[in-house]
Amino acid sequence: MLYGKEHVRRYQETDGAEGHDWNGTTVLLLTTKGRRTGQPYTTPLIYQRHGDACVVVASKGGDPDHPQWYKNLQADPQVEVQVKGERFRARARTATDEEKPELWGLMTRTWPDYDEYQTKTDRQIPVVVLDPQR
């Protein structure tokens, strides 16, 4: 089972042949710029396509605090995305209140645990849209 840095490394080395398909769902790599360090950070995240965009969830397993990658993209929404061998720049944004129900449904169909994660925290778990900048 791939997790964390090992997941990122194998995904990058194999253009997603290892790591894209994971636990019955699909994973992309999101690279954000550290809001304090300016260094790039790459995180494997479950995703689904929605039109041209990719959608991810800032769940952190229902933790009371947002994941670091989400805090980073709030500071700088210009990110890099890798889906299998495809790499592209994107602008990250939090789904609007109007968009969220549809996108939350899309994501819970692929990873039902998101509903459980939401019950563990008082924070509203953000859904993030990664709009390609091609």
UniProtKB/TrEMBL annotation:
GO terms for cellular component: plasma membrane. It catalyses: oxidized coenzyme F420-(gamma-L-Glu)(n) + a quinol + H(+) = reduced coenzyme F420-(gamma-L-Glu)(n) + a quinone. One of its GO terms (molecular function) is oxidoreductase activity. InterPro entries: F420H2_quin_Rdtase, Split_barrel_FMN-bd. It comes from the Bacteria. Belongs to the F420H(2)-dependent quinone reductase family. NCBIfam families: hi_GC_TIGR00026. This is Deazaflavin-dependent oxidoreductase, nitroreductase family. It comes from Nonomuraea pusilla.
